[in-house]
Every structure is written in C-alpha cells, then in structure tokens.
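FYI - complex with 3,4-dihydroxybenzoic acid, inputs then prediction.
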Amino acid sequence: MSRIVGGVATSHVPAIGGAMAKGLQQDPYWKPFFDAYVPTREWVAKVKPDVVVMFYNDHGLNFFLDKMPTFAVGAASEYVSADEGWGLPILPPFPGDADLSWHVIEGLVAEEFDVTTCQEMKVDHGFVIPMGLLWPGDQRPVRAIPIAINTVQHPLPSPARCYKLGQAVGRALRSYPKDLNVLVMGTGGLSHQLDGERAGFINKKFDLFSMEALIHDPAALTEYSSLDLVELAGNQGVEFLMWLAMRGALGNSVKEIKRNYHAPISSTASALLVLETEEQPDLQLTAA
Ligand code: DHB
Ligand code: FE
C-alpha cells in the first residue's frame, strides 16, 4: 500500500523563481529565505518520496475566468510550464503518474467531490517554484500530481471544504495498492494582497497563529469562511486554502520538522512548514 510520508507547505512568489534562475540563494536579501530549504531537502531525501501530490492554485495560465473549476486534478503523464509573463525560464516537463491520478479521482468522486479531470494541464509558478525549491534545477526524481483549487473567481471553496478535500485525497492515496511514498504539498500564501486599496497588506499575527493552528488544531481553521480569510490574510492570502488541503491529507497527528517565516518577499509574507506524518489513521482502523 502507499503511505503519506509528510507534507510541505511553501509560498510560491514568482520572484523566488527569478532568484533561483539568477543563482541569488546566497544574496543577503534572499539567504534567510533559501536557507530554510536546505534542511527541508535533507528531510525529503530521508523520507524518499516517489510521488508528490501538490495542491496549488492556477493564476490564469491553465484556467481563465471563462472556465474555472473549483477543484481540478491532473491526470496526465507529464505537465509542462509556459511563459506567464514573469520573465521566468520555461522548465523541462514534470513527469506525472496517470494511474495514481485516476485512483485519486475515483476516490474523490466516490466521496462526492465532483472534480474536473485534466489529461492536459499547464502548470504555473504555483507548482513550478515549489518543485524547484525541493528539487533544484532540471532534476526530476519524483512524479507529480497537481491538484488545482480555485482562488481566483468567486465564489471560492470554503476552508472546511478544502480541508475535507485533503482528507479524501489522503484516504485515496493510502488505499493505492502500489508500494509508494507520497509527499503532499500545499503552495501559496501566507498573507498578501497584490491589488486594490489594501495592496501590500501583511498580517503577521494571523500568519503565525494559522501556522501554529495548522500543526496542532487544523479543524479550528475550518471555522473561517473564505471571505474571512480574504479579510484576515488578504485577497491572495486566501491561497492558505492549499495549506489546509495539504494538512487534511496528513491525518491527525504530525511532527513539526521545519518552520520558517520571512516577510516580505515581493509583497508577500513568505513561509515554509514541513510536517512528518505520525500515524496513518485509515491503516490503524483496518488493523484494529
Ligand atoms: C506574488 C505572490 C503570489 O502568490 C503570486 O501568485 C504572484 C505574485 C508577489 O508577492 O509578487
Ligand atoms: Fe499566488
């Protein structure tokens, strides 16, 4: 059976991709940000994922306002990036795992998540930058399954719904008969607002509270509505929905491996959270 080895939540600000492309990891501005990923990569090497399931939000590259799925699951054998206008390099394709994608889709639809299935899916900075932070350069040692959650076109799914989506993805992954190690990721956030009257808005107090709650009491965060998140974390800070979905997949109890908060990067409070799974609730149930 497959097992979930842990979760990584990270910001995906496009400027990070620019800094990686220019090799600025030791630059004084960037060093406190990039240094946090060194032990993270060491941990990833230790838990040896075969597959990464990534909750991310598309920003207009693959879906646009005319057709906007709430939840979309990649079911392709590879995923390509494309020019989004940020001046970032276009990277070699990321290999997928279509068989596992369909297993996850079957599980989600059986649990009444009527997802959009994407046998072609372009992946934007929300996916590409976190992949580059964990596996720099052109190396492609893991297969990936992107799961996009709408944060662009209202109405947005609620935090409770995204958490439950993550729980259902977790159950589907743990019921996959092949013996795979799966890392779950959630990308975006933390607080930021890129436009409007509150452009530049950062809420450090809420960010630190929500990182702490995500570890020990994630259900408490599901009391908020998506509009509460917009108010507390900014228009784009609602990307925290990805972090909640990631956390849902991990099960009840997790061990903190790494936490970093570094604000601002661009106009965003950047953050990293690495969690190791401590138990696999579904497996425990069958063993009891
Ligand atoms: C920025 C942050 C994002 O999450 C994003 O998708 C694009 C830009 C920023 O801070 O510049
Ligand atoms: Fe974003």
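The pocket of 3,4-dihydroxybenzoic acid (ligand 1) is lined by residues 12-15, 59, 188, 192, 194, 236, 239, 266-268 (CB under 6 Å). The longest helix spans residues 159-174.
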